[in-house]
Design brief:
Blueprint lengths: L5 H8 L3 H8 L7 H20 L6 E9 L2 H14 L7 E9 L4 H13 L5 E4 L4 H12 L4 E4 L10 E3 L3 H15 L5 E6 L5 H17 L4 E6 L5 H14 L3 E6 L4 H10 L6 E5 L3 H8 L5 E4 L2 H15 L14 E3 L6
Parallel strand pairs: 1-2, 1-3, 3-4, 4-5, 6-7, 6-8, 8-9, 9-10
Antiparallel strand pairs: 10-11
Helix pairs in contact: 1-2, 1-3, 4-12, 5-6, 7-8, 9-10
Length: about 325
């Protein structure tokens, strides 16, 4: 293991040097969660050191995500892979990744980032007043916030990075129209209605169906948060109440659970369209359990996110960064 200074570890972990010293020397009276955070900080430093050989100005950025673990880890991998492409800077990322977290806990993490000298926050969180207000608080303290894959548009965030979610929903509707017979019922599965990006995908889907394919109807299914057990129970309950449900547009994940809910109740699944090419969806595509995945390149998103932050700090020239392009992935063009 590379030897990092106590100061480096403390900055990365967002704790005091004395706390790091107690953890490293195995002393008592350190909370278990604090020990885990210090150990995680060391791992983050090791990963980032492997990706970057830059020796220029140092930046500390925080990533706060409320998302299924499989997606958060994909984002973390994408961000780490791009650090070395933005030299000559030393970029240190502090990751705070949660499948289940309250709005007040997210607010606390954002405020802690401000207190710990963060120079930018990358955020995936619900579009709620408490989050808008906290983004504005960081902005007033000259800490830029980038919203990633789902937006908080009424806030003072400096940019949104990700796909055009309305157009993604319209694309899913178009593909559904091509694949399904008339009078099909499509379940539009959201992790939560509080995420702006998921609402926009659902809106795009409903708009296109209403305009172009009125014989297809949609049913919103929300509240599984992309977590296996929650999603499995939610889909099984919905299938019992909806005997005609035969297709899924999964906006918010939990796709393995969706497939297994249909299997356990011996129900046909005529069409399954998902989002994001994470490990779970790759496997489901390879097994031909999902027909199509609407994907975009997370590495490009990660690069754009970091570039926005460096532009804010006047370390890179301002350039136009377009929305990510949606790609349609099937079992037969999966790489």
């Amino acid at each position: 293991m590379k030897k990092f200074s106590v100061k480096q570890i403390a900055t990365q972990a967002g704790v005091s040097k004395a706390t790091v010293d107690r953890v490293l020397h195995g002393r008592n009276h350190v909370h278990h969660q604090t020990q885990k955070r210090v150990q995680q900080a060391i791992k983050e430093l090791e990963i980032q050191e492997a990706y970057s050989l830059a020796v220029g100005q140092t930046f500390h950025f925080d990533v706060i995500m409320h998302a299924p673990k499989r997606f958060s880890l994909a984002v973390q991998e994408a961000i780490n892979s791009q650090i070395g492409n933005l030299g000559p800077f030393r970029i240190h990322m502090r990751f705070h990744l949660f499948e289940e977290i309250s709005l007040t806990e997210i607010q606390s993490l954002m405020q802690q980032a401000m207190c710990n000298g963060s120079q930018g926050v990358i955020l995936k969180a619900a579009n709620e007043p408490i989050i808008q207000q906290t983004i504005n608080q960081l902005s007033e303290n000259r800490i830029p916030v980038i919203t990633l894959v789902t937006d908080v548009p009424q806030s003072q965030r400096i940019a949104y990075v990700g796909i055009d979610n309305v157009m993604a929903g319209r694309t899913a509707a178009y593909l559904s129209h091509l694949a399904l017979r008339s009078h099909s019922l499509v379940g539009v599965v959201l992790s939560s209605e509080r995420f702006q990006g998921e609402e926009e995908r659902e809106l795009g889907f409903r708009m296109w169906i209403k305009e172009r394919a009125p014989a297809i109807t949609s049913l919103t299914i929300s509240g599984g948060f992309g977590i296996y057990d929650h999603t499995l129970a939610l889909i099984k309950d919905t299938l019992k109440a909806q005997p005609n449900l035969n297709a899924i547009y999964s906006v918010g994940g939990g796709n393995r659970a969706i497939v297994e809910a249909f299997q356990q109740l011996n129900r046909p699944l005529d069409l399954f369209i998902g989002h994001d090419l994470d490990r779970e969806n790759r496997q489901l595509l390879a097994e031909e359990k999902i027909n199509m995945v609407l994907s975009h390149d997370l590495a490009i998103d990660a690069y754009h996110t970091l570039l926005h932050l460096l532009q804010f700090h006047r370390q890179k020239p301002k350039t136009f960064l377009p929305p990510s392009q949606v790609q349609v992935i099937t079992p037969f063009n999966l790489r």
